[in-house]
Structures are given as C-alpha cells and as structure tokens.
Design a protein that fits this description.
single chain; mainly beta; six-stranded antiparallel beta sheet; five-stranded mixed beta sheet; disordered C terminus
C-alpha cells in the first residue's frame, strides 16, 4: 500500500498500509389505436437510446468505461435512506466534496463480504492535493465498524482512478459484525480546501465469499521467495490497456509494450491462481528529441486484488531518459494471507484477476511534449499452482480458475428487464445490436472515451 492508506478493523488495532411479436387476437385494439401505441413505443425507445443513463456533474471524467447495464444509484445521507445493493453488480454513483454516502448490504452469517469504491476524480486538469481521499467502511446495524480503509490521491496529484475497499470477516474470534441482517457500505470523501470542488464519479460493487469448511491454519504463510527474478526473456508484445477495471486488457508472464498519454491511466489484469507469485515492473522509454526537465512522480504503478483491494504501488521520476518502477516482491496467493498483519500480504488472499493501473503524470506532457510515451511492463509469475481452499459453500468466483473480469456485472441485462417493461427490454436489445454493429464497423471500442454506453450517440 502507498503512504497515507489506513485501514481499521474491529477487534484489531489500526494498521497502515460480481422478444416476441404479438399476433392479432379477438378484441384487439382498432388499427388507429395500435398505430398510436406503436408510435408512442417508438418515441419512448428513441428517448431511451438518446439518454442511456443520468448525466453526472461536469467534474466526472469521461474516459473511465463502465460495463453495459451498469446501474445508477444515489447514496443515502443516512442509514434509513440507504438504497440496497445487489451482490456482484456494477453500480455508478457520484460524491461531492465532503460527502458521506450510505448503501445497504444484506449479509448472512456464513459468508465474508467485500465492498469497494473506485474514485474517479475530475475533470482533466483539476487541482488535487495529497490528502484528497475516499474512505470505504462496512458497518453493522448498530453502527459498529467492521472494517475501513482510506485511500488518498497520494503523490500523483492529478485526476486518475484509485480504489479503496473494506471487508466483513466471519470468524469465531470476532465478537462484532457476525450476525445476519442489514449492513452498510459507507463511502466518504475528504478534500483539501484548495482542491477543485468538482463532483467525483464512483464505481461501486460488493461481493461475498463463503467461509472455509472445517478448521485450517489461522496464520499467514511465511518464508516465501522475495528475491526479484531476472527480466523476462523475449521481445515485448504489443497490448493496449483498458480504461478501468471493466475493460482491463489481460496480460500473462513476459514483457508487454503499450503507449500511454500524459494524464492517462491504463488498466491491465493478470490472472493468478492459488500458490502463484507475481513480480511486476514498468518503465518509460527515453524521449527521441533533446529535452531537459524533471518530473518527480511521472510514472505510477498500482496493483489491486480481484476485489479491487489495494495491494502495492510504486512510482518513478522522469528526466527524458529511460526510467523504471518496480513493485516490492509480493506473497504468493493464499487463503491464509488474510491473517497477515501487513496489508500488502493480507490483500493477496484470493485467486482471480489482479489489476495493474499504470498512470502517467500530465506534467510529463508539459515538460517533454504531449505525444504518447512507450511504456514496457515486465511480468514474472512464479510458483506451483496450489489446491483451492475447501469452502463451506459454492464459491464460483473463488475456484481454481478465478473470476473473469467484469463477468458478474454483465449479468445485469436479464435482471434489468424485471419490472421495467417491454420498452426497456427492447431498448437494451437495440442498444446491444447498435453497439456490436459499431464495433464491427471500427467504431471506438475499449479504451475510447465514454462515460456510459460505448461510443457517442
């Protein structure tokens, strides 16, 4: 974890760190009425396609791409106003400076839960300070905090996505947050007085994980390899990162090359199974023209676990010559890592896609030119695949292969039709067809601008 990231948990001391066309029937409406209804349906459909979702404040960035079917939600100002969230579902919201939002989670007493918020500061060029932050906590019905984490924008003081998460553990050793019922995900924003007072977008979700069957080790493993490996062999392969967690480009062991613009953040995902250990470094190539200058926090690397929990981060300065940043060696993925006192090790607790966010400071463009900069990522995955833990219930997202990025959120289309009427279903169907046709025609795809449905309407 980076500096300024703080986690608290109940029962422990504070630590740093998912159409049919109808046929005519007897008694059917006269033709002129049917035509009027059809016209009304077409009009409603056009409205739906023209406005796929609420437009947020001007401060919300447009580059971060949400999945199709994302639900818009407004947080409550207190527990009694909190809207209920469904597990493994993508939600989009907005938070004001100094805002505090409540969302209700319905949990049982047999599963652990993870709640995350991706903060989307904006607009481009907004003034931000080191302490601008979001805090995510899970509270029970009595207001007891099960877990909390605050994440700040840190030394990369320009608009870029960053995330925080909290979890509710189910363990015999804990005396609070163990009962079934209503819990609350609370998202708070803290802003420096001198920072731009624009709204921030939020990407919200929560998921659950069954507890382990029977008993098992209650301490984190130790003695794992910590020596950095030699650079991967072979020429770098080309890749283009996504705009966020939902469209992150998949990477595997080896070297990868992409181009990043100043002020841009690219997202990648690296599938990790139980027992596997990841080593990551990233470097900027030298500029081809003679330029002088120096940018302190030019390149930023941030790694997140499958639940968007921060794992580790690193940064590198830039003076026009090749520079590289490397993450500290990480623990192999293990269920027991959740018992570790270190947040970096505790975050390596589940298998699945780990996410790498690569950001380039806009100051690099101001100093060395605004053209894209080549960045080379070096990934080494070590360790033998270990058996999955014996879960007490079905755990499709925590099995040997791990969850596919964004797969759970794509189940929204079926759920959206319930109670929403034929117009909504038809609209979403046309929306999907149009999107696919545009993609086939070469319209902007993942990585292009868009805060809502793919492509401009």
């Amino acid at each position: 974890m980076g500096r300024g990231d703080v986690r608290t948990r109940t029962g422990t001391k504070a630590r740093h760190g998912g159409y049919r066309a109808s046929t005519p029937v007897a008694g059917a409406a006269p033709p002129h009425l049917r035509a009027a209804r059809a016209a009304a349906l077409a009009g409603a459909l056009c409205v739906l396609l023209a406005a796929p979702g609420p437009v947020f404040a001007a401060g919300t960035p447009s580059s971060y791409r949400f999945p199709e079917g994302v639900r818009n939600v407004s947080g409550g100002g207190q527990e009694t106003d909190a809207p209920a969230l469904a597990a493994d579902t993508a939600y989009r919201s907005v938070i004001k400076p100094g805002g505090k939002l409540y969302f209700r989670l319905v949990l049982d007493d047999k599963k652990e839960a993870y709640a995350s918020a991706v903060a989307l500061p904006g607009p481009a060029g907004a003034k931000l300070a080191y302490g601008d932050s979001v805090r995510v906590s899970i509270q029970d019905a009595d207001g007891e905090t099960c877990d909390a984490q605050r994440r700040s924008i840190g030394s990369a003081q320009y608009p870029h996505p960053f995330a925080a998460y909290a979890y509710r553990a189910v363990r015999p050793s804990l005396s609070t947050c163990q009962e079934p019922g209503s819990y609350y995900m609370v998202v708070e924003r803290e802003s420096d007085p001198g920072s731009t007072t624009a709204d921030w977008g939020l990407d919200l979700r929560y998921s659950t994980e069954p507890t382990r069957a029977g008993t098992g080790p209650g301490t984190a493993p130790s003695g794992w390899p910590s020596a950095s490996p030699a650079p991967p062999a072979g020429a770098p392969r080309r890749v283009h990162g996504g705009t966020g967690f939902h469209d992150a480009a998949e990477l595997s062991d080896g070297q990868w090359k992409d181009a990043v613009r100043p002020g841009e953040t690219l997202f990648f995902r690296v599938p990790l199974d139980w027992g596997r250990q990841l080593f990551v470094s990233g470097g900027l190539d030298a500029v081809t023209t003679a330029r002088t200058g120096y940018v302190g926090t030019a390149l930023s690397l941030q790694l997140y676990n499958p639940e968007r929990g921060p794992v580790a981060g690193a940064s590198a300065p830039y003076d026009g010559r090749s520079k590289e940043a490397s993450l500290d060696p990480l623990a192999p993925v293990a269920y027991e890592n959740r018992y570790a006192p270190s947040d970096e090790t505790s975050a390596m607790r589940i298998n699945g896609p780990y996410y790498l966010a690569v950001s380039l400071s806009p100051e690099v463009g101001q100093t060395f030119g605004d053209a894209p900069y080549d960045v080379t990522l070096k990934l080494t995955v070590r360790g033998a695949k270990a058996p999955a833990p014996a879960y007490a219930g079905p755990a499709p997202d925590f099995g040997p292969a791990g969850p596919a990025a964004g797969a759970a959120s794509m189940k929204l289309l079926a759920a959206l039709g319930i109670g929403s009427g034929t117009v909504l279903l038809a609209g979403l169907g046309v929306w999907t067809v149009v999107t696919r046709r545009r993609a086939a025609a070469g319209a902007p795809g993942p990585g292009s601008q868009g805060f809502g449905p793919p492509g401009p309407w």
